[in-house]
Design goal:
Elements (H helix, E strand, L loop, with lengths): L1 H31 L20 H11 L8 E4 L3 E2 L2 E2 L1 E8 L2 E14 L2 E14 L2 H8 L19 H5 L9 H11 L8 E2 L8 E11 L2 E11 L5 E11 L11 E7 L8 E8 L13 E3 L10 E3 L12 E3 L2 E3 L13 E3 L12 E3 L9 E3 L2 E3 L13 E3 L8 E3 L10 E3 L2 E3 L13 E3 L10 H42 L1
Antiparallel strand pairs: 1-4, 2-3, 4-5, 5-6, 6-10, 7-8, 8-9, 9-10, 11-12, 12-13, 14-16, 15-17, 18-20, 19-21, 22-24, 23-25
Length: about 475
Amino acid sequence: MIKRDRRKERIIIYTLIGVLILLTIFFLIIYSLPKSILPSPPTPLSIPQGCDDSSIQALWNSVFQTGSTGITIIKNNTLVAGKCAGYFAYKIAADEAYLLYGATQTTNVGNNFRNNSFGFAEKGNFTAAYLSLLSALTSIEGVPDLPKYITTSGFLASYVNNRSSSLSIADADSEFSSIFEETPGTWEVSSSLANNPYYFKKNSTSYANEKETKLNAEGVVAENYSYSLFEFAEVENATAPVPPCIQNWTIIGWTPSTCPANQTQYAVYNDTNSCNNETGRPVSNRSCNYTAPCDTDWNCTDWDPVICTSSRLQTRSCDDINHCNDTSDKPATNKSCNYTAPQTCTPNWNCSSWGACSNSIHTRTCTDINFCNNTSTRPALSEACVIPCTQNWTCANFSKCNSNSTQYRNCTDINACNSTTSRPALQQSCEYEAPKPASVWTIIMILATVVLAIIAGVAIYLLKTREKRFIEASMDARRKKA
């Protein structure tokens, strides 16, 4: 009986060990699979934010496995949406060459503006004729016709040397990974590209700061020609480009306003389109008739009225006998005077508007324009008032964005004015982000951990059971002998 139990235990233990070995082999097989089998989005590249050499070198280093030391850079130093409008870089090593060509353009499709940054990274065993064309480049204008990619009919046969032997898909994956930093996607045989090469495509979309960005990547490896290509693109939404401001200069006057002794006046121009750019402002002048200085001679009438009235103002007129048309030294034509009120005086009160309410009282001033020096009939200078309640709202932070794409908060009026006319918004729209599902690797590792824990627990239980049975059998044997 004991031998039969031990045989069952051995079978269970060997079965568990076999399952453990099979799981280990399974994980090793998955780990050793090519990266192209596992899905991955395109890697964000260092698209040049300017046309300086360091930005283009940074892009090179994010595309190629080989470093940017010794590369030749050709560019046009023009920016589109803050990125380099056109650039080309290459490195030649014997009969092999690395090429990097890219550009940024703003397009409008259906009034949807996009900033398109695209590029081609190539590595091939090129003919001497192609390397000669490459070395002769001196400006960015000659670049677009030179770097041909694999869809161009006859390019491979004309400029790329043949391989010593054709490649398999696994060889293409290995070659691409040894040249470029990008992790390949799933390789296929293309029926639409010239020479039916191996290729893959990947794309992804991301959102940041209310801006949508799309990344596209495509890899190509020729089967019979020593040539590999990595094509990449970054597309992001953009605002409509601001049209250039065209200046419209018009003459609005002349300076100096009066003709100077040199008898020349200069035009004063104004840009009616308000381009805020002084470049291109015209300069013109005209001749004028200079008039020698004139000495004024003012003749003034007597002050009127002769006796000061309750208006306390006297006026007069003054004329220049020489008609110099210059009033800079003209005498005063009005002045204040001291008015003496008659003995029988009737007050005539003139009051200002009520002032601001303070401590439930507002005040004003009242003046007797007849200066009777009698305040018995003066209107009230103060009266009760009610201070208006000013709302003072304080708000909590918005809640997290819910599945309805809405955030909420509470607001309280510190002054308790019992009015919501100026209360801030209690809710706002937001962009809801659904919880990210666990990755495939995380789920696999959790399941593997649970299985291994169960196997270990069963093994420990069986070992303890076996030991207990062995002890019990030994004790039974001793009892029988006794």
